[in-house]
From TrEMBL:
GO process annotations (BP): methylation
Keyword Membrane annotated: no
Alphabetized InterPro entries for the sequence: DNA_methylase_N4/N6 (IPR002941), SAM-dependent_MTases_sf (IPR029063)
Domain of life: Bacteria
Alphabetic keyword roster: Methyltransferase, Transferase
Occurrences of domain DNA methylase N-4/N-6 (ranges): 27-119
Protein's recorded name: DNA methylase domain protein
Signal peptide residues on this chain, from the entry's feature table: none
Species name: Leptospira weilii serovar Topaz str. LT2116
One function term, GO molecular function aspect: DNA binding
Coiled-coil intervals: none
Length: 168
């Protein structure tokens, strides 16, 4: 972000800011400046006053069913979805999907989500958490399993180290 040394001159409709390295002052609309200051105050108020309320920390338990590296809490996408998307159904693109926190939160709030990640594991995690199976379907799957069948014990292969490991 460019830093300015100060306001050079002010007119009724425009004001001029001079940067540290610039000779010519930048011309800004006074209305745009007032609106940007008001937005900054509003954003500061929302971030300090409303972001960490107990209501916003409550999230769906499906988010915590899988642990995944470099993941973030579902409150973060929930905050931005509530703030920047309308209540109508919108589309959310998550280009680095990870465990699917953003796409799942978007679906929980009624939006369409596009999940993208290079890892096939990421796609599997997000897809498996999108559809929660019903109790009837879980019973049918468990009934198909033969729980009385004994598993064969496989002979373990031993790997011998060529080097002696020493602890310093």
């Amino acid at each position: 972000m460019r830093s300015f040394t100060g306001i050079v001159s002010v007119s009724k409709r425009f004001f001029f800011l001079r940067g540290k390295t610039e000779r010519r002052p930048k011309i800004f609309s006074y209305e745009v400046f007032r609106m940007s200051i008001a937005l900054k105050r509003k954003e500061r108020k929302i971030q300090i006053g409303e972001f960490w309320t107990s209501r916003q920390r409550q999230s769906h338990s499906i988010h915590y069913s899988v642990s995944y590296r470099a993941s973030f809490k579902p409150e973060l996408p929930a905050f931005f979805l509530d703030r920047y998307l309308s209540k109508n159904k919108g589309t959310v693109l998550d280009p680095f999907g990870g465990r699917g926190t953003t796409s799942i939160q978007a679906n929980l709030e009624g939006h369409f989500a596009i999940h993208n990640d290079i890892s096939p594991m990421s796609l599997f995690l997000a897809k498996s958490r999108q559809t929660i199976p019903s109790l009837d379907s879980m019973e049918r799957i468990l009934d198909r399993l033969d729980l009385k069948k004994k598993l064969e014990k496989k002979k373990k292969t031993r790997i011998y180290s060529l080097f002696i490991i020493r602890i310093l």
